[in-house]
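Fold sample X.
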Amino acid sequence: MKKPAHHKMTSRSPIYIYATEMVSAYYKCLDLKDKSVLSICGSGDQVINAYFFGAKKVFAFDINIRAEFILDLKLKALKILDYEEFLDFFGSGYGNAKFSFSNYQKIRSSLLDKTKRFFDKVYKEFNYNGRRLVDSDYFRKRDMLSASIFQVNAYLKNEKEYLKCRNIMADKKIEFVVSDINEINKKINKTFDIINISNVLNYLTANVADGDLVRILSLTIKSVSKKLKVNGLIFWYSYFEVMYKNNGKGVPPASRKDIIKEIEKNLAFKIISKKIKGMKQGFFDRINILMRVR
């Protein structure tokens, strides 16, 4: 049996500037009001949008230690920069972030020490040129995506929503743990109403033999489900199937309907798939929601 692997995802992977899934669309499908949420951190957008849609407390995890840095940077930028400055810094789309050093300096003093050390180092490495930094291997390139960041992120829809989010986030503290998904049960001593594992399951099965797919995925979900409160739910993200085929890859096991049905048989969950507006115009993505039934 081959061991599960986090294919190309490590503790020092390139950083996502914005989420690459329709975060606002799937949070609208769920009732987050006053709920506790455990979420993959990624670009930080999953965390910020969860609060925006009414979550009472959000706890972030990620195998990538740099995910905390971008979350911290975004939260402080949200607090300090005006709407236009924020969009100029992080970009009004997936390929035009500037990361201007002048705006970074406005944020810098409020950052966590570890965030400050990281960004001070990388800015220096690129002679304080934000565009060169963004174009470097420190960041993931996602300018091929056709979805608008204003659709992906409700807090960026317009200046009014941005300022609303600033008020919501004013008293929120970062709770973040560096963790592989299979270590969550050991590293986090809390339970949650909702757990967002994004598309992490896809990375688990990169090097898993076909005969072990259902077992590995079921074991992971079962382990994470120990962090659920009664009547809680876990969900993960699936892109439209054509996207996987266009990339020259088959549909990942965690997004295949036959595998999902087998997982459902193995666990005390009912699995519901909901279609949402996709990351590519004219297509639908979906979230797979696992609800405890016994």
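Fold sample Y, listed below.
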Amino acid sequence: LVGLLAGPQVGYSGVILYLVAYVAMTVGAFSIMNMFAGGDDSAMTMSRISGLAKRHPIAGGALALFMLSLAGFPPTAGFVGKYYMFSGALEAGETLLVLIAVLTSAVSVYYYVRVIVMMYMKEEQASYAFKGSRYAYLAAALCVMLVLKFGVFPAQLLHAVKKAAIF
């Protein structure tokens, strides 16, 4: 909503940019979470994440990247999306709204970093099956590439969303 209030030129392109980044971050995170065995949501617990980075370092690293991107840390697509959207809202004079958005983003950092702490700093509580299909690994790898590419080299995506926002 921050981007929508900023107006059609900068605001809408900021929304599109963040949506592209958000899709890559969430699809990647859920593809990793999908690798836990279990046919229902009972497999999705914080205790299952504990020690993941030691058992499966690549999957743990990918999930950590997605969490950092969701929190808005550089050099990830989440940072670029939030920065572009917030700067557009500032240009539109929505200072109070941006301040509230930045504060709520700061609060959300706790929840995202908590997942990383569980993966890297907590001991595994029980041994859980963790295996994914080729498609889950492919989705996670593609999302890692997108999150890093759009975080480090965002110019191509910025150009595309500016053109898309004109229509």
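Sample Y note: The chain has a mean pLDDT of 87.
Also: The radius of gyration is 17 Å.
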